[in-house]
Amino acid sequence: xxxxxxxxxxxxxxxxxxxxxxxxxxxxxxxxxxxxxxxxxxxxxxxxxxxxxxxxxxxxxxxxxxxxxxxxxxxxxxxxxxxxxxxxxxxxxxxxxxxxxxxxxxxxxxxxxxxxxxxxxxxxxxxxxxxxxxxxxxxxxxxxxxxxxxxxxxxxxxxxxxxxxxxxxxxxxxxxxxxxxxxxxxxxxxxxxxxxxxxxxxxxxxxxxxxxxxxxxxxxxxxxxxxxxxxxxxxxxxxxxxxxxxxxxxxxxxxxxxxxxxxxxxxxxxxxxxxxxxxxxxxxxxxxxxxxxxxxxxxxxxxxxxxxxxxxxxxxxxxxxxxxxxxxxxxxxxxxxxxxxxxxxxxxxxxxxxxxxxxxx
Length: 361
Prior knowledge:
This protein is of the alpha+beta class. Among the domains are: 1-104, no CATH class; 282-357, no CATH class. Helices cover 48% and strands 15% of the residues. It contains ten helices and nine strands. The strands form two sheets. Strands 1, 2, 3, 4 and 5 form a five-stranded antiparallel beta sheet that branches. A four-stranded mixed beta sheet has the order 6-7-8-9. α3 (32-57) packs across α4.
């Protein structure tokens, strides 16, 4: 678990602001150079803990095996960027040598069905004490609230059915505590069945991920076909999975001058619905500005650190200039998040350019 979270040490970038963090995250600690180094770092930390804490508390304990720790650390570290890559936020695998972003576009950044399969199998196979059960209960309540409040509908209902089914199945298959001791069943007594359970869950997750990857590729073809049929000249297409609803995706079709939003739904007829009337222009400026003046204003805005950092991360950027008191407000956004103001810095950055900064506008 520690190894699987280590790549996110780049969250320290938030101390320099949200926009700096956008330019810094999913990079140096997530790419393949870090994958070669971080397992050794985690192993070293675990060996130090084993020597200076664990075995001091229990001098009779066997020392940890560095080979197993290194293997587990490598698996944990690799899973993190691999899963990160599967969403639309993106990854930079080759930093510090190459800052190119790549995107899997196949899973929402928070996927409850992976949580249910993997988390449910771990809970089913566990034998926690009283405090452990409290921890599992808190986790279950929080994730359920996230689904109920954030998604609702049939995904929330299916999630709760899954939680209840896991609780009932665990109760039916667990070995009762030894009479008079109040002890939980030992992990050894159930290890064979638990290993099969966890392996089955892992296989199901891999099958689910494979299906989502294939569905994204097929959906892209559907969107291109639908856009072409409507006379939309396609430059690029994004099919973005939605939270908790695997069959439904948000769509952005990039043209030469705009982003056309839409929806792809495998269960709808037609599967693709595009909304050209809601298209977001790649560049929008006041009518009284010449192209040269508009370009100068945008260049001045791009030099502001918050904008420069945002543009490092932006995948489908657009810029809108509006007149303000003795100057201009310049909005830089990303079509992936332009309809989601609740995402904060991801949705865009607006800066002010004073008239005095632009010669002869």
